[in-house]
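User: Fold this; tokens only.

Assistant: Input:
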Amino acid sequence: MNQILSIITGGGSKRHLTGSLGMAVHGCAALVALAVIYTTTFVYVDLYVMMVVFLSAMLALLFINIGPGPLGREDRPGLIDWCLVLASIAVGVYFLVENQRIAERITLLFPLETPDLIAASVLLALTIEATRRTVGFGLTSVVLVFVVYNLWGHGLPGALGFREVSYNHFLDIMMFTSDGLFGVPLRVAATYAFLFVMFGTFLSKAGGAEFFYNLSSSLAGHRTGGPAKIAVISSGLYGTMSGSPTSDVVTTGSVTIPIMQRLGYSKPLSGSVEVAASTGGSLLPPVMGSAAFIMAEYTGIEYRDIAIAGIVPALLYYLCVYAQVHLRSQKLGLRGLSKDETPPLKDTLKTGGLFIVPLVALSGALLMGYSPTFVAAIATAVVLVVATVQPSTRMGPRAIWDALAVTTLRMVSVVAACAAAGLVIGGISMTGLGGKFADLVYLMAGNSAFLALVISAVLAIILGMGMPTPSAFILAAVLVGPTLLSMDFSALQTNMFILYFAVLSAMTPPVAVAAFAASAIADASPLKIAIGAVKLAITAFIVPFAFVYGEGLLMVGGWQAITVSCVTAVLGVLLLSIAVEGFWRQPLSRLPRLGFGLAGLLFITPSWWAVVAAMMVGILAILATPHLRPHLHRKPA
């Protein structure tokens, strides 16, 4: 019984396929990537048809590569897995063959035929099982709750009740329209999210990840706290390509965490630095991760505008982490790397400097207003050109084929999560739960916009504890977004606010997935790592409130207002970092520490009176600190 419960409540285990089966799966994955490139950049394909075929192929690959749980075989799929693979392919073929009839029928007016009901039911079950295997019981339980609520929630009393929805009605909306399974999240996963992951994969395979690490080492390795600063810079640069905090931790943390520990960093601290740095990568333009792509599709805001708006908050995030790493290293007396351990900057740029070109091309194409799909395709092509120019990083046909396959396999779990999120969103729309939840937030917050923001932030973090960032963002946006929009916050402010807390959930205790990934490398408690990471990135929990009340930090408004907002925010972040660490040249006593913390918060607050008050409090805190106090009188000779 315990083993059965373990399979049901736990996630699946990734298989390590070898031999002819491994080669066949690898080849199929590469073909899927080629099909995505072809259908998104070269020809027009009906979007519904494309998503049906894409989801069918990804589910088949998922059931081959990910087992049902701890009892599943790790070397090859079992009988049940092959049955699920065949079912995935059969469903995809059915929807593809019947596409013309499905497209011409009127939803809810023309009844579904029996084969339609069977195919849709099978696809629903496959999606739920795929979600369980890839994400675990968190998101799966949410999906199941919404399915049950959609089918039987009409019996609930009061506001939670709604008009009865039959099973046929449920499947018609969920599987045969773009409002359910094939909604915004899956549409994003099948198009430009896939292509941006491909860009990051090609850049990494060509040697870009190694170059960014060497560049970080050249710039900061020899300074105080050098290894930790390398982690901050390299993880941020790599994280904006991978778009996944957990993936970033595993990739860069395997190098940076052992180096930090070798030079005296404690196990929890080394893990915390890596988790804080990696999590911020999903907020750092120009890529920012899948959740930002979903935000662009869901809100209609151009991705270029989202990337521009994210520049200052992301830089403030890394300024906070970097400043605290510097102060902590000074406080603990931690040295940097020796000159022999850091590559010369000139040599680093000479051997890999061309890898900056793809990022410049990507950023430039975004600023010129090209679509994210085109931008990702162009940036990937530039990576291939750069890799060809440099003999040491040249990618041959085999390396390109491998990068295509790796891209598809990396997207498997993302696709499952996005499909599940589509089911939940469809259920929310079908039952009107979004409006009812908005009424609940109104009831809890009253007329307080600040309290509504706090509720929204908490909800985004809680959702993110049980599911990937894209799913957490879209669910929070659907549930609380309308409430914040009704309080005169703009769509950009509202959704950037929700995006930030959805991303931060990856490192927020108690279920901090990025911290659990780091704990295996650092050999430390995931809870201690998560608490340390939140402390290092404390500004990220404050800045969203600032840009909601003042758009200057989102690069909206006149240049004077933007400049003032940025300058005061930088001062606020630095003072907050000092207060959190309790150190500035020497340890600080409690009163100055509180003063610096209050001054930091006031500087970040978008208000002139707050800036004036911050200056006064900051001056008083300096005067209350003996080793910082200015010498007002010269000593007699």
